Amino acid sequence: MSSEMDGGDSWRGVPLSEMYGSQSPWGSPEFSLVSPSFNHAVLYHVPSDGCLADDKPPKPQIGHDKWDSEHVRMPCSSHSLYPVEDSNGESHLKKRWEMIESALSKPIRNSHDLANTILSYNTKFRNTWKFRGLHKLFNEYLEEEESQYFFDVTLPEIAKLALALPKLIQSPIPLLKKHTNRSISLSQQQISCLLANAFFCTFPRRNSTKPTSEYNSYPFFNFNTYRFYEATDSDSNLEKLKCICHYFRRVVTKVPGGVVSFTRRSVPGRALPAWPRSQRPLGCLPLHVDASRTIEDADGLIQVDFANKYLGGGVLGHGCVQEEIRFVICPELMVSMLFTEVLSPNEALMIIGAERYSKYSGYGQSFRWAGPHCDGSPRDSSGRRRRALLAIDALPYSSLSREFSRDAITRELNKAWVGFSFDTDPQSERAQYPGVATGNWGCGAFGGTTQLKSLLQLMACAQARRPMAYFTFGDTKLRDEIVDMYNLLARHNVTVGQLYKYIVKFSQEKDVSQSQLNLYLEQVVKSGTSASPPPANRSAPSKRSDDVMETSITETVPATTTDLESQLENHSPDLFTEDDIDQSLLEVTIESEKKENPHTNTSTNNQSTDKNEVSTPQKRMSLFDTMQAIEGDQNPTASNTLLGNQRRNSLLNDTDASMDEDKSDPATELKKKITKKITDYFSKKSI
């Protein structure tokens, strides 16, 4: 490929066809097909020929409930118990699913009924969950006709979907834990059922914000744990709720027939590239830089999610930037929050098959739902939409000196490479397709520098041999800077290893707060100055390949990386929104990845798998009190005030809405009257 590049008015570089390796976005090789194995749990039945029916969802895989620390604890499990008081004031434990079935089988006419339904099986939050956001959405923000349609037609169907859980999910869902390489495949129908239960906040042990809770190292999943239904200070939060409501309206109207795969990749430290020694030339990398389009418009490419290490970031909180927006326009992504433990520095998550349901406009506080989106992407041989989302989390930085440190540079390179080299052939020297669609990863609220981040991603793509499409979100100056720098590096045959040394030398020799990285690189590359290798911060094995990709599930990353993340722990910005937020909810800091020693018990594996074996503190507790302690916060008000000191920087929420089917069922008549009439499902009422 020529090192000099030019393009159209909005883009520069090579055409997108060189990102696919064909003239069509769908001409790239398919990803590994769905095949049940010891490390790939498939929750639906796969026919012997591997082909799924096009016109109906696959049948659930038959299995048995597992109530343990290795699997998702399901709301419908017979082990899920809840403390209640009878008419005599005596406390006893009751099967929670029976409470949920009873609550969701009653009519729900308005947002207050919905709130009371959710609280009927989450009684300890009666004084703290006020549902102000829900009330504002349905009573002020939407037209009265739209709100009525939701409660009379859509909501009863969501309730039915939630109550179908025992039928649709018959096999246990494994947790995608740290330091493991594992996959989960679910049908879109199964995902909609799980999300319906999250909407109603039915998942056990997922409401607690305590640092000792079983799921402290996982994102929140019940929708109102981080007050998703409470926020009234921002229209963007109400718009996110509209996206979710629109998704449910779509899936209860027509059951989706496809499947979605979630794959966690963990690469041991010894198998990460030796960056200073890499001989891969940067000039061989096909590069496309676009200032007008967005990542989600890049059909056929691996689309990067600028993730929080707790998947979803603030999607169920106040956040409304890149990751949160992607999760609400493609809500099937949100189910990853149910079973994906916090990502380590050497890990990434790939999601294949999630469908897009909504259009949007704006960003942050200006975000708005802009109508339905019909996803036209074809399905692969396993029944998945040919949409691949790659979740990789950047570090937040409080200063340039930290961002430009050798440890930080190496950490970000490793993180990007682990993601970009997903499903590549380590023995091949040929380009790997499809390419990667990315942008200003780790910039914005995370405090990263676009000059550095674009170069690091360029290096990681070159190392993984994947073409790169970079989207600058309207910034034509940045587009030109990236292309001009690439041309310079390509003309002088600079390798990945050389560029790594140049960047590290820049951080050691220059005052990074006063210097321009691109100017420095231009000078050093043109002068032909060689950068002597900086002193190593860790010992490397004597024999090592730059491209070895092992699959050990027990190794952790080098200590220098976790030390760095520990230093950044107390200097994290709010990762999920650009504007002022209720500080009582946002006093959270990034949990140190230094604590990721594999000997540390992060999932409370010693928790009882039987209701009769619950461990007690210093003195014997009653069974009632014990279940309260396990199920959630004993003092919700106090614990939520201390949320910032107790829990990680990943603002996720658990929210429930209990919905019931009206036995008189006005749905049919209402559908006839309203469906044809309403063209814009959500129109904002002027307030």
From TrEMBL:
Record: residues binding substrate: N308, Q322, Y363
GO CC annotations on file: cytoplasm; nucleus
Protein name: poly(ADP-ribose) glycohydrolase
Domain PARG helical: 142-264
Primary enzyme class: hydrolase
Stored PANTHER family: POLY ADP-RIBOSE GLYCOHYDROLASE, POLY(ADP-RIBOSE) GLYCOHYDROLASE
Active site: D305, E323, E324
Keyword Ligase: no
Region (Disordered): 527-550, 590-616, 633-668
EC number: 3.2.1.143
Domain called PARG catalytic Macro: residue spans: 273-479
Record has Hydrolase as a keyword: yes
Residue ranges, compositional bias (Polar residues): 599-616, 634-656
Keyword annotations: Hydrolase
Single GO BP term: nucleotide-sugar metabolic process
Similarity-based family: Belongs to the poly(ADP-ribose) glycohydrolase family.
Organism: Trichoplusia ni (Cabbage looper)
GO terms assigned for molecular function: poly(ADP-ribose) glycohydrolase activity
